[in-house]
Amino acid sequence: MKFASIPNICLALLSVIASFGLLSPAHAQVKLPSGSTQVQPIDPNDPDTLSPTGQTSSVLSLDGGKRLMSEAGNAVSSQNYSLAENKLKEARLVFNQLSNFYQQLNSSFAGIDNRVADSQRQKALSAAQMRDEATYQLALVNRAQNKPELAVPLLVQIIKSQNPSRELGRKAYQQLLELGFVDSPYPKSGSNATSPKK
């Protein structure tokens, strides 16, 4: 079924709802003792409890985004480019939201707890890297569908985010060269790229 007209965020929410729909009502909530006002520790081995923040099954997680990219890869293998495009758009959205959320947490903890701040910063960087990889794959899918007008803006975004001297940035620029959008090879044949100034 094609959901091209439904916003990506709705697709992500539908995926979450669908995953909960596979569970019985008894499994859809964390059990607490009668009259208890405190949240009890969750036992992951207890089949009657479900963690509301389970990072392995949540769509809004690095694993959730990676699953979407894997599904997109399977769709590309079967030449179902429309499905691949939708999955990659969802993955981009997930990774971009994660990167923004982790950056906000990093800012909140900066100067208060540098250990927590550094952890959130690394997560933000990982999510941003995965977002750019999903963006690159989406640009390739657009090329495969003869939609260079959609691929070019994505490739430019990658170069801006990654820097032309990094591998993904160079690959994005090479795609622009192959599309004829740019005409100056980078790096020049027989020479190494100049290291960016710090």
Proportion of strand residues: under 5%
Q: What's the CATH class of the domain at 56-179, please?
A: Mainly Alpha
User: Tell me, what's the shape?
Assistant: flat
Q: Mind summarizing the main beta sheet?
A: none
Helix content: 55-70%
Task: Provide the low-confidence segments as ranges.
Answer: 1-55, 193-198
Rg from Cα: 21 Å
**The CATH topology of the domain at 56-179:** Serine Threonine Protein Phosphatase 5, Tetratricopeptide repeat
Mean pLDDT level? 76
Number of helices: 6
**The CATH architecture of the domain at 56-179:** Alpha Horseshoe
What would you call the structural class?
A: mainly alpha
Classify the oligomer: single chain
| Number of distinct beta strands | 0
Distance between the ends: 49 Å
Secondary-structure element order, N to C: HHHHHH
In short:
This protein has 198 residues and is an all-alpha fold. The chain has six helices and no strands.
Can you tell me about this structure?
There is one protein chain. With 198 residues, this protein is mainly α. The chain has a domain at 56-179: Serine Threonine Protein Phosphatase 5, Tetratricopeptide repeat (Alpha Horseshoe), CATH 1.25.40. The protein is 60% helix and 0% strand. It has six helices and no strands. It has helices at 8-21, 62-77, 81-109, 114-144, 148-162, 167-179. The longest helix is centred in the middle third of the chain and has 31 residues, at 114-144. It is flat, with a radius of gyration of 21 Å. 25% of the residues are buried. The model is unreliable at 1-55 and 193-198 (pLDDT under 50).
